[in-house]
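Training component of the fellowship. As part of building independent skills, the fellow (R.M.) carried out the full modelling exercise for a liganded target. The chosen ligand was adenosine-2'-monophosphate. The inputs are recorded below so that the supervisory panel can assess the work.
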Amino acid sequence: MANIEEEWLAFAKQLAVSAGEMMVEARDASAFVRDYKMDHELVTSTDIAVDQFICSRIEARYPSHRILSEESSPTMSLSSIADDVPVWVIDPIDGTVNFAHGHHHVAVSIGVYVAQRRVLGVVHAPFLNECFWALSGAGAYCNDQPLSVSGENTLRNAVVATGFPYQKTALVPIIERVSRILHHCQDIRRNGSAALDLCWVAAGRLDAYFESVKPWDMAAGTLIAEEAGARVGHYLPRGTLWPEVVNGDGLLVSTPDLFDDVMALMNAPA
Ligand code: 2AM
Ligand code: CA
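Fellow's submitted model of the complex:
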């Protein structure tokens, strides 16, 4: 099994690098147009083009596998991820707002799951020349450097990342949680790419991260964080739409020593 998983990983890295080249070329040439999904959720023509590129390559190479992708199959049924057919979970551009505004914090995210097990994750940041990846049981890496969480154990010294939803009506409880955390940590970051936030916890650049996100935002990054020694859990009850392993409702990822302290603040009375 390891050999086939290594083959999938090599293929995922190739796809991510090619997808990253598409993003850089599109932005250098300003060759993309903006559109808005429900509730002002930004999507660009490059999100769609990269999605089609990645999905068509996976379909050609592994026709029996399944794909759960933000842009082309965001409602794939829950049962599809439960059996032992490999599922590729794709976010063609994580950090679309950053991409469209000329920021560098942008990634393509590719995760593979089998029978609700995290098998591999690749998060490639083409504007930063960093490719984060992990294979279950084999550790996490940035380019070829092994990753390890920071080891921070004092919340007052921790840098904590989070994010905000497109849906403005959901903001009040989120701002309350941010306020509680900000009163107890060193500082907060809102970098705009959940996949990269997870990789930055893995790399020790962030000490904790919390946010409610979709499966494609966290499918690859959670394995990379786990393999680097992070603790992965949830501060909210999960909705029933997605299986636990790809469910990003109330996602909390941190160094092992910070996890309980952050969790306690997440659930403290307002
Ligand atoms: P996206 O770029 O694929 O849409 C950051 O908060 C994470 O949540 C990103 O992974 C981003 O994914 C998504 N997201 C949801 N709402 C967002 C918003 N208002 N601004 C930026 N990203 C948002
Ligand atoms: Ca996206």
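The panel noted the following from the submitted structure. The radius of gyration is 17 Å. The chain has a mean pLDDT of 94.
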